[in-house]
Amino acid sequence: MTRSLSSFSNLDALRGEAKRWLKVIAAGDIEAVSRFRQVFPAHNGVPKLRQVQHALAREYGASSWAALKQEIEDRARSFGDRVRLFLEKSVNRYSTDPTTQKWGTYEPDGPQRGVVAARVLERHPEIVRDSIHTAVAAHDVDAVRTFLRKNPRTANDRSGFDGWTPLVRLAYARLPIEAVANNALEIANVLLDAGADPNAGWSDGANDFNVLVGVIGGGEGGQVAHPLAETFVRLLIARGADPFAPQALYNTSLGPDSTFWLDLLWSESARRGETHKWTGPAPKELGGERCSSALAYLLGNAVPHHIQRTRWLLEHGADAHGINFYSRKPVIKHAVQAGREDMVELLVRQGATRPELTELERFFAATVAGDFARMRELALKHPEFLQSHEPMFAVIRLRRADIAEALLELGMSVDIGDEKNLRALHYTTHCGAEEIARLLIARGAQIDPFELRYGGTPLTHAVYNRQTEMVNLLAAVSRNFRGLCYAGAVDRVRELLTDAPDRANRHDRDGEPALFCLPDDEEKAVEIAELLVSFGADPTFRNPQGHTPGEVARRRGLDDAAALLEDAAMAATKV
User: Fold this and answer.
1) pLDDT per residue as tens digits for the range 338-373
2) Are 526 and 48 a contacting pair, CB within 8 Å?
3) Residue 71 CB: number of other CB atoms within 10 A?
4) Which fold has domain 369-532?
5) Residues 527, 521: contact at Cβ < 8 Å?
């Protein structure tokens, strides 16, 4: 029979009950064991405390101990806290903290954020009535209309939480609920009818993110587009949004070789007679003063890997003689050096001059072409060419282990890297070049070098890039404790802790011991957290932002791990 929580139920009492139940199970009490097996019928031996807590939660009708704990905490959480949590998690934020407006210090966008917001909404539907912002985020059309009837000016109200307008929030919302697809366009029309600014936006301190950017998505974090992206964008443009959206053009230039958004946005600019925005001085998001036009910047991003985009950009006015914004080299040189003869021919037909390559560039071209004889000839003549990382990185992009091996045989270092110490082994994790990674490791490459841009090792880069096979390969040989925790490499973490237990509280990065480095996978996060705590990791420690490991896990949607850490913190404070 399902038990019910009362107004007197609290976590301390429930923790105590779970511990007493575990104690009598361990003593062999038949009734206690039978009660436990009602939940875990196949379990043998003495369970762990978290399993008994799970069984107790099931008796109260909750799916897990974390869910039971959340139920009790929700009763204690203020209405304002629920509103803030919902507004925080319901949208893509492009790594910009809503409270500080600073980029790079905030958690990455991902589906789990929307799951947390949807759960808050399901459990507390009353938050919809807090403001037009919660009504919009919840995609409640009737509630939005009610707020606008009371005060039409709320259509452009800037939220005190993050400064966003309702239409901006609608564009960036990514909740896994049916109301998004069912109601988003109707709400957009309601807001626009009430005078909402279709060009409203926000800034991360360097770049401007408007409504169109939110709907289109994409970018360095691979943010998903709105489920009704095309229709939504056409509606916004029809209602006054400027189709020339620099940040959206940048974001989509990082994605696949597609001209869909280029076609749509250009055609709408042309309809307005405003294609000069594409061909005139570039905005800051697309190179600014260092780039002659938006098209010139985008061409540099397209060459050498996106031939469809390259063809489109040239047809719409990009100069085939263009210079890559980052390298300051002619784009055709990038095509030649990448061995993209199709791209070279396209650029030449459009007026570019096939470049006269330097000896180093000839070596690069021979390398990507797999011309081993020419590679050897040039390397013997210019051994300094083997000090450049670019040939190896190009080969890694091509996943040509045979050419990578040839470079090593010629004398290139297995630890070759760029000026920021991003090494070949790091780069294999960006490209999924597992065979080359194995080659580098077998030839003695350092396993855990730290690059200087983000402070990451090859393992942490593999985790970030979600390269599962690369994670497994590197975790087996890595000693980067932080990375191993993020990877959920339980056995390897246990091995290193056994060798040096102080790792449990060591700071590989200032203010962040290992309990702040849990993997995204909920089950592995619990295992890593449990293992660290068993070796003495401090669950009460606060990072520079003032958060405990449990609070950080909760923000990431790792509820079971958060519950474990919060329980451990509670126990630690009572010792």
Assistant:
1) 878 899 999 999 999 998 888 998 899 899 989 999
2) no
3) 16
4) 1.25.40
5) no
